[in-house]
Structure formats: structure tokens, C-alpha cells
Amino acid sequence: MEKLKNRYRYSVILLKQLVKTDFKLRYQNSVLGYLWSLLRPLALFVTLYIVFARFLKVGEGIPHYPVYLLLGIVLWNYFVEVTTGSLGAIVEKGDILRKINFPKYVIILSGSFSALINLFINFGVIAVFMVITGVDVRPVAFLLPIFVIELFVFSLATAFFLSAAFVRFRDVRYIWEVIIQAAFYATPILYPISRVVEFSDLAAKLLMLNPMAQIIQDARLVLVTEKTQSFGALYGSELPRLLPVGITILLVVVAAIYFRQRSKYFAEEV
What we know:
The chain is mainly alpha-helical. It contains 14 helices and no strands.
């Protein structure tokens, strides 16, 4: 344990400093400062709620739909913030990489933890909305950290892969912008998965294999309303839940191997 502690002591110290620096610089010289970490998801929530709930009546029949929608937006925004922020993270640290030898993975980790701070702040806003709208906190709410950890791991694995790929292929940024836009509408954030079931049961099952869809639905199930269409209710068994979890694990392995192989050439390619 002592050898392990000494091995990663420098990485931990560097990670702490990078997280502090990244979080401070993110809102530096802005008038509202850290308030933007709250206002950005809230502005998106208000826009989407007015359009999809008030005009298109998408949330009809869903208890506490405002909280239901806000939770989905907050979780999705975390994924977007981590992955898009990772794209140029290695390249932006090019000067440092050429001068100092340090663990490259710390750069990506720092962005993930910085975004995690924003996520926890936004959970405070969700808690306020829950009180205002009268959402009952049930005992199953203690399972929420499990899905937050799953979100963190899935986002981080994606970030590692994208950051390493971007160093060599700058087209990755434009490809990812298209993918993330399409994935937003392919993930049940604005609409309940039950609406998809009405059109195609197969399509709903395929959508739920997306780890982000599974995480968002499970988080809603334990925190907002038990009427959320769960994985077990959709498939008739909890066993298929292992599929999106398996996809996450596979992504972690692939991303770790790819990042480790490519990190040897970062200083030369950035």
C-alpha cells in the first residue's frame, strides 16, 4: 500500500491543482462567474419545457415532469461537458507535454472532476425543484450514487478515447459534434421511453441499450417517480440491464488501451 501510495502521490497532487485551475479559469472574467454552472442547464430546461411540455404536451401522464426533464438534462450535460471538453485537452497542454514528463491521463481526469463539481451543484438545484413540486424522496433514492458513478465512468472512458483520437485526427471534433447532437434526440431526455414503445417496442429496447439512456432512466426511477419505464419493465427481466453495463466496461478497456498506446506520441504530435 505504501508503494502504491508513493507511486501515485505526484499524480494526485497534480490532479488536485489541475481541477482547481480548470474550475477557476472556466468562469474567469465573466460577470456572473460560477452562476453560469447553474444558469446554463436551467436556461435549456426552461426552453425545452415550454416547447415540449406546454406546446407539444410530451410530458403528459408523467408525474413531476419538470424534475423528470431537469434531471435528464443535468445528467446529459455532464456527459457532454466531459466528452467535448476532452477533445482538445491534450493538444491545449502541448507546450507543457513537450517540457515536462508527467502522467497524461491526469489531464483528462481533471476535466472530469471539474465537471463533477458542476454536476453536484446542479443536483442542489434539482433538490430545490423536488421540494417545490412535492416529489417524495423514497428509500430507493440511496441507489442514485451508483448511477452517478456509472455516468462518471462511461463519460471518462469516452473522454479518454476521444482525446487520444483527436491528437492524431482533428476531424474527430466535427464527427463528435454530429454524433452528440443526434444522440441527444436518440436518448429519452425530452420524451419518456413509453412514447417510443407505442410506435415500436424493438426501437425502445434498442434505445435503452445506450448506457446514457439506461443511466438517465434508472436515475429518474429511483429519484423522481416509480412510474418511469425501467429496464426490467421494458424487457420483462432485469438481466438485459447487464448489456449497457457491459458496453461501458468494454469501452473502459478499449479506451484505456488506446490512450496508453497513443500517449507515448502525444509530445510529438500535439
